[in-house]
Amino acid sequence: MADQLLEFAQQLINGLAQGSIYALIALGYTMVFGVLRFINFAHGDVFMLGAFAGLYTAPKLLALFGGGPSLPGATAVLLVAMLICAAIGILIEKLCYRPLRDRPRLTVLITAIGVSLFLENAGQYAFGVDPQSFPEIIVDRAIEIPETWGAISALTITIGQILVVGVTLFLLLVLRFVVLHTRLGMAMRALSFNPVAASLMGVNTDVVISFTFGLGSALAGAAGILTSIQQPSIDPLMGINIGLKAFVAAVLGGIGNIPGAALGGILIGVLEALVVGYINPTYRDALVFAVLILILIVKPSGLLGKTEREKV
Amino acid sequence: MSAPPGPPPPALLRLEGCTMQFGGLKCVSDLSFTIPEGSLTGLIGPNGAGKTTVFNLITGVYRPTAGKISFASKSVVGHRPYRITSRGIARTFQNIRLFGSLSVFDNVRTACNMHLRHGISHALLRGPKFATENAETEATVTELLDIFGLNAVRDEPCRSLPYGDQRRLEIVRALATRPKLLLLDEPAAGMNPTEKIELMNLIRFTKEKFHLAVLLVEHDMKVVMGICERIIVLDYGKKIAEGTPAEVRANPAVIAAYLGKEKP
Amino acid sequence: MATRAKTLLATTLLACAVLSIFAGKINPYYYDILISIGINIILATSLNLVNGYTGQFSLGHAGFMAVGAYASAWLSLTFGYILGTHSAATTATFLGALTVGGLIAGLAGLAVGIPSLRLRGDYLAIVTLGFNEIIKGVIQNAEPLGAQRGLGGMMQHTNFFWTFTFAALTVYVVLTLVHSTYGSGFLAVRDDEIAAEAMGINTTKYKVLAFVIGAFFAGVAGGLYAHFKQFVHPEGFNFLRSVDIVVMVILGGMGSTIGVCIAAVLLTILPEVLRALAHLPWLPEWLRPIVENRMILYSLLLIILMIARPQGLFSGIGLKRQKT
After folding, report:
1. Residue A202: C-alpha distances to residues A37, A191, A193, A205, A212 (Å)
2. B53 at the A interface (CB within 8 A)?
3. Residue B142 class from Cβ within 10 Å (0-12 exposed, 13-18 middle, 19+ buried)?
4. SS3 C63
């Protein structure tokens, strides 16, 4: 019995760590949908670019802090990757989505598919098709839980997992602060409720949308680094699968709803861990699609979202 | 008006105790009224009174939270809009909803769909049955367009028509479904006084020629008072008055709803 | 006027028969491209019914192609000689397998169309994508269908005549449907669902019908593909294949069958043109892989197309007033 409980707890921990990654990426989907009402298909690939940004900048950044894995070095890599991804996100919006501001949402969706394909294929051209090894920016090993804590000491919790959950929590709090207590955050919320009214009230739509993209992409970049700490094998197509699952997480939580994205991410992560642990690892991808189809048929507005009615 | 009044015409549409609630908001509250066959009734009230909601309830876009709606003595609650249309209720919309990519002719033709006796296999194989029905449809649409003076522009994209003509087209399209009750949602919106007079004549003409009952939502009092036989007044989702134009005009509750209470 | 469509069809079929005599004699490389063009015309035209004429954004067409491909392949592998070994007999079983494959694909269209009814735009696209992945996943786990290894050994029944006969049939069905009063329901659903319902059109019926008919022909295309390449693999029917077909529909101008056919021809030839270009001696080395990997240029084309001309290249072609 204690064994089963431990097993369950272990799966929960794994799920929580993976779910935090999904949550970070899901936030980008949901914020962009909130202000622009479309699904940024290319968002998962920004996550991939974050990992590669880390790959290329890590050696120089780590050298600043004495070479080799270190906490300040890892923080630097994280921040730099976030900045790079923010810049990329803002650039993509400016070049590819801004010209389509007044077009049907389907046109933008197709463009986003084009951007996604471009990033993946150009990535393969630039970085090579084969997976590469992400440098060690922090020593990732299981922490030692003292025997005196009892049965819990049998659990495997790695530094990487603690880092992921910790950083995600921190970033979530920062995001919450930005959205609730800054003017830009308020402008974001205004835009997501009513873009016309918001711009009539003096909100600079372009700036706010750029800011939103930058924020979401930065979070995706962070997710890229955090994932690479635990799974050092990175390749240009790594954004596809994770991006899709993060998207499902955003829909599950209620697309456009920020706490929903975080909740959805954790739920998908935990669900996936439970399926892998208790049912069959080969079904993890199918599960995610099943969840997606189920939500969209039963409650398309997600767990925390509200239904939008079309005016007749 | 010297002929003695005959027996009242049968009730075509009957609403009993209808309520429409969205979350905490009651858009329509315990509403009951009857529309007799061949009548011309106006539905008026201040903005937000629930008039379009009533239309949406009747045509099945919304399902009433409570109450009964029956058409020709059969309930229509819970039916899909297309089925309600096939029973004989047609409508136009507050914001014109024409089929934007289609021509004037084709807009009306889509409304003939429900009366087709042939199915998909005939459309594909194009036998004699298809040809005959096709000719019939063509004739029906042409006649309708002709009556309303739109036949000359039948091949034009409907979006290229002036606003007033688009509204007329919407009415023609609704008529192609061969309704017994026609719901017009603010047909005079955006029209100048001349167009409004033409519209009033058009509505009267349509009602007579096609033997319909008409229920009209409208803000322009000249139009409403000018053609309606009876008027129903809503305010905050409730019926506050019902009667002939003269009765309604003098009703203090109606005046209060539109103008506010007189200061003592 | 109604017979004009049938006369056109008959003439086209006759032309197919005549041309097929010559087609068999040309260079196999060009023959391959020709067959691919025909198959892509079927795929693009059938998707255009769903996306272009009914306004339902389906991103999972390759899934239906897969169903048809695998179903017909399995049927012809299992029952191929049931009528005998004479070429007329095997051709008959081939046609039977194709049709049954198409019908099963049509059923898949039903299975996808019905749950998707309440969804619009982005959501519908994602769900159809999901179904595409599920179909692929099912095939990957199905032993009788070769699972991850693929399925092979089919006889090469597909030839110029059959490919273009079915292409002509697909175009005929879609065009005659859409240009009839019955078929105007599809267009009404696309333009304004609420108004369509108010005009007595059963929008559910039309949406599902579009999916089923589209899926049927995609299935036939899949069967033709399977009996041409003589080998099918689940990865050949993934999201990218669906995007391929969607790009044809968009490039051609949604709602223009002729435009979509032209786009299908162009986009089938494009990779070959790029491949030839990539081998030009004066091309700088660094440019070579970009040109050869058509996906980079493809995705750029998509982005530029959407920004510069979202209505497609050929949307002007098409009748203002639909003559029946």
Report:
1. 20, 11, 15, 9, 17
2. no
3. middle
4. helix
Nearest CA in chain C to B94: C195
pLDDT tier, C324 (very low <50, low <70, confident <90, very high otherwise): very low
pLDDT (tens digit, 9 = 90+) per residue, A7-58? 888 889 999 999 999 999 999 999 998 888 888 989 999 999 999 999 999 9
pLDDT per residue over A191-238, tens digit each?
A: 888 878 888 888 888 899 999 999 999 999 999 999 999 888 999 999
Write out the two tokens for B13.
């549409």
Q: Is A312 on the interface with B (CB under 8 A)?
A: yes
How many residues does the structure list for chain C?
324
Sequence-distant contacts of B136-140: CB under 8 A, at least 24 apart: B137/B109, B137/B112, B137/C181, B140/B112, B140/B176
Q: Do C198 and B90 touch (CB under 8 A)?
A: yes
C177 touches chain B (CB under 8 A): yes
A310 lies within 8 A of chain B by CB: no
Listed in sequence order, the residues at least 6 apart from C302 whose beta carbon sits closer than 8 Å to its beta carbon are A110, A111, A113, A114, A117, C247, C250
B–C CB contacts, 8 A cutoff, strictly below: 124
Residues of C in contact with B106 (CB under 8 A): 184, 187, 321-322
Q: Which of A261, A225, A194 is nearest to A28 (CA)?
A: A261
Look up the pTM and report it.
0.88
Confidence at residue B84, expressed as pLDDT on a 0 to 100 scale: 94
Residue C322 confidence (pLDDT) above 60: no
pLDDT digits (tens, 9 = 90+) for B168-213: 999 999 999 999 999 999 999 888 899 899 899 999 999 999 999 9
| pLDDT at C1 > cutoff 60 | no
Rounded Cα–Cα distance for residues C168 and C13 (Å): 7
Specify whether the CB–CB gap between C105 and C226 falls below 8 A: no
Question: Which strand ranges, in their side-by-side order, compose the sheet holding B238-243?
Answer: B89-91, B181-185, B213-217, B40-44, B230-235, B238-243
Chains that touch A (3 or more CB pairs under 8 A): B, C
- Any chain A CB within 8 A of the CB of C119? yes
Q: What tokens appear for C9 in the block?
A: 């069809």
Q: Are the C-beta atoms of A255 and A27 separated by less than 8 Å?
A: no
Q: Is C142 on the interface with A (CB under 8 A)?
A: no
DSSP C236: G
**Spatial separation of the C-alpha atoms in residues A157 and C38, rounded to whole Å:** 57
Picking from B124, B142, B122, B125, the residue whose alpha carbon sits closest to that of residue B133 is B122
ipTM of the complex: 0.88
Residue A238 is predicted with a pLDDT of 92
Taking residues A105-125, what's their average pLDDT? 90
User: What residues are paired with B68 via a beta bridge?
Assistant: B16
> Quick check: B98 and B166 in contact, CB under 8 A?
yes
Burial of C320 (0-12, 13-18, 19+ CB in 10 A): exposed
Q: Which residues in chain A have Cβ-Cβ distances shorter than 8 Å to C302?
A: 110-111, 113-114, 117
Instruction: Evaluate if residue B230 carries a pLDDT over 80.
Output: yes
Round to whole Å and give the CA distance between A226 and A169: 13
Nearest-angstrom CA–CA distance, C199 and C37: 39
